[in-house]
Amino acid sequence: MKVASCLALLPALALAAPAAPVERDVAPPGFTVHGTAYGGTGCPQGTLKVKVSPDGKFLPLVFDNFVASIGPGEDITRQRQNCQIALDLLYAPGYSFSVLSSKYVGYAKLDAGVTATVGATYYFSGKPNQDQTFVSFDGPVEGDYVKYDNEAISVWSPCGSEGILNVNSEIRLTSNNARASGVLTTDRIDTKFTHNIYLRWRQC
User: Fold this and answer.
1) Distance (Å, rounded) from C-alpha 68 to C-alpha 73?
2) Record keywords: Cytoplasm included (predicted)?
3) What is the mean pLDDT of residues 10-33?
């Protein structure tokens, strides 16, 4: 009798349990960039463009002047460049979003002993937590590069129809050889440094 009673409760418990949020990589209706504010050593005003990709899956951040350099005679402040960006995003009510992955496209010329790092810190206005993702690669190397960071961040935007995603995009160079040089700059095809932010969504 006890077993039967417990089994009888299972359907009721299943109905009472809250459903897990359903994640999707396609944006909800009405997804658009409502406004952008930015500043930093790597993005003087007028040098950053932001839009939603045609398929609604990612946000391309396109920089005209994101350049870091290291080596004899180089100013130490050039070793690290950043851009602090606030993206005001609008979308259909009842959704929340997070960063799924990132893609970085640029040009690198690194001597042996030089390490390049590209990445970003993410957080949402109104939320206390933040998350970071970075990708590093070593010299010697010369040419255009494409780097992927497939580590999803753990923080989500507040539930609603508008969220402000804050992104501190960063490039930096370090070296264990005082005579080595390196540069991270825009790629040679379209003279841009691109940081694509892929998003994931869930109903809330």
Assistant:
1) 14
2) no
3) 59
* Cβ(85)–Cβ(36) below 8 Å: yes
Question: Is the separation of the CB atoms in 164 and 158 below 8 Å?
Answer: no
The residue-averaged pLDDT of 117-132 equals: 90
Contact 22, 74 (CB under 8 A): no
- How many Å apart are CA 95 and CA 79, to the nearest integer? 39
**Confidence band for 4, pLDDT divided at 50, 70 and 90:** very low
Q: What are phi and psi of 76, to 5 degrees?
A: -60, -25
Phi-psi region of 113 (alpha: psi -120 to 50; beta: other; left: phi over 0): left
Q: 6 falls in which pLDDT band (50, 70, 90)?
A: very low
Side chain identity at residue 42, one-letter code: G
Report d(CA 76, CA 58) in Å as an integer.
34
Rounded Cα distance, 4 and 185, in Å: 69
Tokens for 69, please give them: 């350099």
DSSP letter at 71 equals S
- Give the containing element (helix H, strand E) for 7: helix 2-16
pTM beyond cutoff 0.85: no
Residue 75: both structure tokens together: 């100013």
Query: Residue ranges per domain, the chain?
Result: 21-203
